Amino acid sequence: MPKKLIILLLGLGICLITFFLVNAHMGKTAARQKALSQPIRVIVAKIPIEARTAITAEMLEYKEIPKNYAAPGAATNHRDVLDRISLSPIIAGEQIISAKLIKNAGNVGLPLVIPENKRAVSVQVDSAASVANMVKPGDMVDIVCVVHDWDRTIAILQNVQVLAIDQQVIESSSAPNQSKLNTTVIATFALSLSDAEKLIQASNKGALKLLLRPLNDNSSVISWGATTSKLLPYTAAAPAQAYSVRVINGAQVSSKSL
Known about the structure:
- The chain starts with a helix and ends with a strand.
- By secondary structure, it is α+β, with helices and mostly antiparallel strands.
- The protein is elongated, with a radius of gyration of 39 Å.
- The protein folds into 2 domains: 39-107, Type Iii Antifreeze Protein Isoform Hplc 12 (Alpha-Beta Complex), CATH 3.90.1210.10; 112-230, no CATH class.
- The chain has 3 helices and 11 strands; from the N terminus they run αβββββαβββαβββ.
């Protein structure tokens, strides 16, 4: 067999093999693309969902998208997301990802709502503002300490987040057959470790009161506190002392008041 014919047949065989291999690969790719383009129903946020929020059915809706557009771990069943808590904010239309939710929403407790690098510290505070339902979890407050031994009232911490407010009614008696109901309010705040130490020390030195801050007010004010002497706008001046002088004019002597 001529050498040129052998080379021609080998080349033709290689071409045929390459053709079949490419055709098989393209067939698999087309089948894969077809499978990925099949529609799938995923659960998305119907409204914006804040972090640390319990998921309810009203916040969710189904959306049909191509399968290859579904995010890894995207929820496809309401049972997988209801009554769970979001770990981070979810924007409207965003797919609900299981990794962004935490189970057992009712048993999560306080650690979930503590901001990063903060500590939860609870102290007894003056009940006046809290009893009136002025201060609620999530509010920002200034904490003022009234130190009677030093005759001084001063703001010790500013712009502090309230994590929880717990009101307790305690029965106390100061004499036989006499009892009185006292309202005790325990407030829990999110503080850095150093601020938590400061607050605990202040709670042992005096009474704590809360000042409710306006929304979106992050300002800080330098204050040296107030004392009893600062309650009066001015100090009354002592009455002027009267003076008199003797005037001698020749033989005449007289006195004159100044």
